């Protein structure tokens, strides 16, 4: 692509070199002949330190935020904004040919984006999905590296969606991605705010920074769909003006969309979706009160897109559920569930929805991530101790942190609770121990890994799929 086209709508100073761009990157290791290298300052490194090396590797242009005196250099005010815009230009601005929907919040993004895509498909449209578990281009699965991809990968995916005939793209908007301006320049027809609880403070440092990152999405939306039951959702409504406002609530009749006649069971939830001039019955196959909120969010977003409420209700009732999100792995003499819950609030929501339907004991297995916000660890243990009849404390992804140190952070709350528990650092062994203790009527909740089929330990990624562990154990017991 010629550089003038690549720099369309990007304000810069300096003179563009002659030549064609074959790649736009912020990673100097990818610099090669034909590459345009964009400098920006990160948390631990500054791209400006690598600009000369990028040129030596063959880059035809470097984009900087302040002059470095290098050949082939142009300056911009903000490297991240320029990078996002240039990536859109390189792929022919594919987002402009898609109706974009973004979902943000601490918990529930994966479930709600999946449900919105299912509703869109029920309405007869092709859609793409970008999220934590994977990317879907219509019916094709693509592995996901990040919840919200970098601009180059994001626009490449949008381009593939357009070529596949998709007219909608639904995506999770993570706080890190918003803070890093990965979505800069995109316009979303609908933005959904679900909730905000403690998470990612290792990155954002303060809760106010975390909220500010989430809030920034709503400068880029035409319609904002907001959870009125969440305190930060109400704050968002007070602080953001401009978009059309739509609210949903499982508790407050003042919302635009509410749930009435809520009936909870181990197999899911039933309720009446009440909106502007309609009532639709919904039978949703994911248990827990928070599942009502997730279904409401998806339905409200769909109606904001112009999809009939009846179509949304039918899609939710026929939903296939979501892998690793309160997923039932086995239901017989006992029940085994798998969920991605990895914060105190997420565990609270999952277990509060399960506990009332456990005929026997509620056994909860969980671990705390390494090199992440350590303040979450006692909060996770407190949520487990509140609901579990027996707890199994193990590892999640310790990464390069000492797994025994992580356990020491999490264990005191369990010990003080008086609830019976065991500690097993090796997660596969811990899962097997939890399975072996199951008795008739028990419910085992495997928390933390969800859809993940790996464990990150000391810089190495190891295969560990709890779906497979449970399947093999059930087969060994003659229960598969």
List the uncertain runs: none
Shape: globular
- The count of strands amounts to 23
- Sheet with the most strands, sense and barrel status: 11 strands, mixed
Strand order of the largest sheet: 8-7-6-9-5-10-11-12-13-14-15
Helix content: 25-40%
Q: What number is the mean pLDDT?
A: 93
Task: Note the beta-strand portion.
Answer: 15-25%
Helix segment count? 16
Q: What is the structural class?
A: alpha/beta
Cα gyration radius (Å): 24 Å
Query: How far is the N terminus from the C terminus?
Result: 55 Å
General description of the model:
It is a single chain. The chain is α/β, with parallel strands linked by helices and 480 residues long. It is built from 16 helices and 23 strands. α10 runs antiparallel to α11 (309-317).
SSE blueprint:
Blueprint: H1 3-6, E1 23-25, E2 35-38, H2 51-56, E3 61-64, E4 73-75, H3 79-90, E5 99-104, H4 109-122, E6 127-130, E7 134-137, E8 140-143, H5 151-163, E9 168-172, H6 175-179, E10 188-193, H7 201-204, H8 207-216, E11 221-227, H9 231-239, E12 244-249, E13 257-265, E14 268-275, E15 278-284, H10 289-304, H11 309-317, E16 327-331, E17 335-339, H12 344-354, E18 362-368, H13 376-387, E19 390-395, H14 403-417, E20 421-423, H15 427-436, E21 443-447, E22 454-457, E23 460-463, H16 466-476
Helix pairs in contact: 4-10, 4-11, 10-11, 12-13, 13-14, 15-16
């Amino acid at each position: 692509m010629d550089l003038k086209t690549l720099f369309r709508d990007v304000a810069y100073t300096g003179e563009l070199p002659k030549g064609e761009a074959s790649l736009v990157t912020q990673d100097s290791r990818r610099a090669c002949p034909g590459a345009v290298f964009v400098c920006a300052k990160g948390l631990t490194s500054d791209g400006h330190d690598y600009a000369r090396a990028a040129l030596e590797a063959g880059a035809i242009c470097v984009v900087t935020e302040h002059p470095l005196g290098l050949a082939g250099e142009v300056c911009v005010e903000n490297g991240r904004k320029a990078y996002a815009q240039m990536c859109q230009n390189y792929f022919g601005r594919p987002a402009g040919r898609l109706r974009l929907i973004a979902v943000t919040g601490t918990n529930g993004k994966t479930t709600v984006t999946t449900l919105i895509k299912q509703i869109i498909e029920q309405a007869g449209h092709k859609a793409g999905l970008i999220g934590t578990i994977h990317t879907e281009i219509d019916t094709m699965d693509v592995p996901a590296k990040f919840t919200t991809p970098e601009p180059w990968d994001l626009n490449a995916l949008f381009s593939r969606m357009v070529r596949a005939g998709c007219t909608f793209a639904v995506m999770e908007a993570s706080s890190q991605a918003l803070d890093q301006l990965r979505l800069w320049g995109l316009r979303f027809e609908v933005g959904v705010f679900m909730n905000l609880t403690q998470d990612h403070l290792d990155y954002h440092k303060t809760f106010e920074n975390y909220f500010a990152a989430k809030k920034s999405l709503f400068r880029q939306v035409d319609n904002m769909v907001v959870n009125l039951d969440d305190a930060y959702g109400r704050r968002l409504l007070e602080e953001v003006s401009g978009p059309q406002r739509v609210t949903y609530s499982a508790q407050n009749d003042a919302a635009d969309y509410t749930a009435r006649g809520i009936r909870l069971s181990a197999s899911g939830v039933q309720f009446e979706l009440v909106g502007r001039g309609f009532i639709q019955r919904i039978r949703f196959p994911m248990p827990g009160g928070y599942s009502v909120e997730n279904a409401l969010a998806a339905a409200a977003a769909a109606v904001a897109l112009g999809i009939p409420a009846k179509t949304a209700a039918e899609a939710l009732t026929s939903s296939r559920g979501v892998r690793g999100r309160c997923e039932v792995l086995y239901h017989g003499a006992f029940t085994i569930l798998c969920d991605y819950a990895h914060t105190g609030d997420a565990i609270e929501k999952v277990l509060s929805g399960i506990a009332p339907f456990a005929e026997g004991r509620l056994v909860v297995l969980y671990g705390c991530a390494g090199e992440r916000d350590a303040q979450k660890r006692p909060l996770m243990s407190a949520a487990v101790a509140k609901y579990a009849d027996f707890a199994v404390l193990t590892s999640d992804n310790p990464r390069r942190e000492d797994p025994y140190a992580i356990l020491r952070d999490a264990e005191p709350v369990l010990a003080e609770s008086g609830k019976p528990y065991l500690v097993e650092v090796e997660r596969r062994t811990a899962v097997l121990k939890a399975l072996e203790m199951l008795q008739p009527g028990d419910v085992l909740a495997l928390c933390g890994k969800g859809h993940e089929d790996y464990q990150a330990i000391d810089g190495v990624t190891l295969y560990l799929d709890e779906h497979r562990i449970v399947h093999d154990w059930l087969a060994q017991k003659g229960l598969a």
